Please model this.
Amino acid sequence: MCAIAGIVHFDGRTDSPEVEDLRAMISRIRHRGPEEFGCYRDHHTGLVHARLALIDIATGQQPLSNEDGTLWIAFNGEIYNYIELAKELEKLGHRFRTHSDTEVVVHAYEAWGNECFSRFNGDWAAALWDRTRRRLVLSRDRIGVRPLFLHRQGQRLWFASEVKALFALPVIPREFDPRGMEQTFTSWAPIAPVTPFRGIEEIPPACIRTYDREGILHERIFWQPSYPCRDAEHKNALSLPEATEALREKLERATTLRMLRADVPVGSYLSGGLDSSLTARLGRRAKQGDFRTFSLRFSDAEFDETEFQRAMAATLDSAHVEVCVSRADIARVFPAVVMHAEKPILRTAPAPMYLLSEAVRSAGIKAVLTGEGADEMFGGYDIFREAKIREFWARQPESRIRPRLFERIYPYLARSPQHTKGLAQEFWRRGLDHAGRPGFSHEPRWTSTSGVKRFFSQELRSAIAREQLPDLLTSLPSSFNAWDQLAKAQYLEIVTLLSPYLISSQGDRMLMAHSVEGRFPFLDVNVMEFANGLPPAFKLCGLSEKHILKRAAEGMIPATIIQRQKQPYRAPDAISFLLPEPPEYVREAFSEDALRKSGLFDVAATRMLFNKCIAKAKEAGSVMPFSNTDNMSFVGILSSQLLHASLSTCIGMDRGTDIHFTTEVDALSPRHVQRNRVQEAYET
Amino acid sequence: MKREVIVETTTDFIRKNFLFDDKVNLGECDSLLGAGILDSTGVLELIAFLELTYGVSFKDEELVAENFDSIAKIAGFVSGKIGNPVG
Model:
């Protein structure tokens, strides 16, 4: 796991990328790879790399090249099937000098060109520089686990793992993009290529971007979640028991690869739910010796799952580490969390994940398995069950019986006073008359999140109105309409939430803040494609979620964990910042001055919200919780304000002068500086 | 108590607590739930306000969307309660 950055000048040889700029860029993201630094430069291109060594510790330094130094790479991530690919490439005559997966990418690209990426099973953000053809290739993995951003000005291009590396250079503009705000306050995060920042693009998941010698862009999406058509005949369809067995094998293989393809110990997160319990169990089986597990506890009982975590840890016989998070902890780390996420966030849930990765790092572990992705692939979320009921209800909108099915998925409703039921129904009734619309499953959520936009300033509203907003719902895969309702909802969930928020703001960014790599067995390409091909009823059976996964887990994890009511991962939100007193930075972010300065939010409205929240928190013995809208508004505004303030402060003096390149290849240096063990291995 | 007073007071409360804008145009008949102005916790806040301000109390079965979906409905419902105090 690592950080990468680079500069490409497509025009002439007169003005080459500066090594000092590369140094400044990589310095800002050294948390992703604090162990070794490397740099490559020629007339047109500079590549720079910060390393967190997990595979081939001795010779896996980067940037790295092919045999004759015509193809260079800066790579972040892991290709878990690299050993199998290396064997294939050796048969084709390729020779390897290291035992790293990165070198496999170089040779795979030589052998198969852009087709190589669809052969990779793993998570990556890669930059390849083909010196002979003067061609730059940028690519990300299928789900977009590893980040990659870029900025283009004429014939110049800058790219980096995180935006802060781009912002290290004064030449890069730094302002908010209204489109990023609009998307964040609809579906929780900007969807690539849109980012919160104007002029900064995020390479979309599963994307291959090729820039030729004139700097002309060719883009290709090589993979997307795809599902069988509704009425498709399932040829050779597996029975449920057969499919369960096949799933077990695929998950085992996916987890084993992620445990064994590492030259350091791999630990595991343990949330107390089905998914991480299963990956931890399979991880435990895959490798002899010590096994470390890590869990988040909450001082707020409402969010806590300690009992189940301990039960699972006991069956694993793991060295178990618990991190107990309080409201004060969340408030304390929140500014750092926002700086790492580099996006406004509407929930505090990433903050505990930031604290958890800190504990992992302190325990000396550099990589962890997590259960992320299971809910998206196997239909685990309530939004899928809601959509199923809403579709059923939409066929008979006057029915008073059909909406009572919501009581089955939210048992508290059955016990609730009438008004809660009535309101809940009003909420889900939204868009009921549009059951055929592609966004049907997600409209209630998008509408309620959009409520926060009432705080947008006039200025921001006008800016949004002027922008051409990319519309996700008009650029769906051509077969989308032929998919089952569950498949459509899964697709939207993956594209709008998993990739841009869960795996990013709450995943990679929080892990890498403390130099820890996340490994996700449920996002293994074979697991994902198998899951996507299953009949919907294997996933959501009636209203029972993750049906096949629960069956696959039988006998491997305690029945109490398989059968327990699913608990969504949440953390205390607005209340974290209000008691006993709001921290100074919170008061500052909500101050008239700061609100005027950012221009993002209506000053009077936001002040009213702030005062309302303070008053509410102080109501003695108040049992009334904050409403969902107030929580999202408070956290969303606070994080936007913090992020905006950082734009003017992050023009630091940090040029990374303390960074020492252990790998340095400079084609421009009069001495042709070349300190690279791979190259040396060649020459001797 | 006059219905107009209830309308005015309730409108003011909704503006300040849910719309965060004390001048915004809010029609008596605008749907509060359909427009996403109130979510379920928001309705609890509103009910607490009405009970405290008008000294009325609501039974569970009265707490249906029909009674709270617009300012007009709220005003009608509350003034009815004040006119005919129950239990």
About this structure: The helical segments of chain B are 3-19, 40-54, 65-68, 71-83. Residues 3-83 of chain B form a domain with the Non-ribosomal Peptide Synthetase Peptidyl Carrier Protein; Chain A fold (CATH 1.10.1200.10).
